[in-house]
Amino acid sequence: GQLAKGAGTRAYLSDAVQHIPGKIKYKGSTNIIAGDEIPGTLGSPVEIGQMEVAFTSSANMVTLQRGIAIGDQLLMTSGDLDLNGFMADLGTTGTLVESAGNTVKGSTGTIKATRTLNAPASENVGGLGAVLTSGANMGVTQVVRGHTPQTNGGNTGIARYFDITPTTNSGLNATLEFLYDESELEGIAEADLELYRSTDGGTTWTTEGGAVDAPANKVTLGGVDAFSRWTAGSQNNPLPVELAAWAVVADGRSATLSWRTASETNNAGFEVEHQQGHGEYAAWQAIGFVEGQGTTTAPQQYQHRLTGLDPGTHHFRLKQIDFDGAFAYSPEVEVAIELAERFVLEPAYPNPFNPQATVRFAVKEAVEVQAALYDVLGREVQVLYAGTPAAGEMVEVRIDGTGLVSGLYLVRLMGEGIDATQTLTLVK
After folding, report:
1. How far apart are the first and last CA of the chain?
2. Is the dihedral of CA 185, 187, 190, 191 positive or negative?
3. Per-state percent for the chain, helix, strand, coil, to nearest 5
4. Residues with Cβ < 8 Å from 97, sequence gap 6 or more?
5. Is the entire prediction scored with pTM above 0.85?
């Protein structure tokens, strides 16, 4: 009999699986959820000498239920292997053997191999499809292949990427042959393929180019100085701007934002966004726009200067916008604007007011203060704030004049060594 599980069958019978010491072969014409035929605890990685997927139809699939380590060969003769979020580790000796349309895949999970590469010549590491050539001794090199399409700026690459990590990773002058299966193209025309590189795990990308050999299902790129994450995508819908540097520097009540791009593709420009603090009123606001350079492989330098900033912590980010409206956010940077004076009490606004006004203050050191509203006779009518604010952070409080009569009022800020007033008028 067969044990049904999900949309497939957990194989343990001879008509679905052949299991001899050191080798497992999946066959037949029914999708299989791998499980009982693999020794060990379900969900735990297990070592296997050789695994072969050899269904009667290439439309069938084996779905992993645990990680596996292959010491010899992983043969994809007919059908696919879905990693299903698990790792297939080929180690230093295992090799993947695929044929067209019969592949290892899966929107989650990875397959990796490790080799020692000394001046490699057309070395297809573990058969994963990243073919490396270099005159340099790269040392112990790990190649990890994943199948989650990489995205940026609303655009998407093919369903294959490589994380390539050599021990020696500079001055390689290497050639990369990026192999792919046509089932991974995600609707991208082969003639439009080019390579993209990310040095931050897929957050930002650089357009690298490369020559397409469609009959061989590969894109080749020479002159590679160092490796990291690589994928292939469409030159017509590229993975756009690579932000190489991004920083903010304070100067009194001013700040200068500086950033540099390594390359740009379809870049209309950068919207500069600002946030002060993280409280109720700390929404992101667009405060400027800096035009981009469209498409260029040359590094570009940008600056944006701000003045009259409030004391406290300020956060900034860039919204990079393409000409087609697609956009992506940069990481956030922050800067602290220090208070030069012992305290500051800003004029209330609006003034005149009805029925509400806002007043803001800050203290250089964290001391207990009170802000209160008084009428012209010196009577306290509202306590606006009582407590110990954070040093150097602007505090914003509201004045509610709903129950007050029209006339002149005073806001007074008091504390140890602190005494200041501002006047405002309530007009009903």
Report:
1. 87
2. negative
3. 5, 55, 40
4. 73, 74, 75, 76, 127
5. no
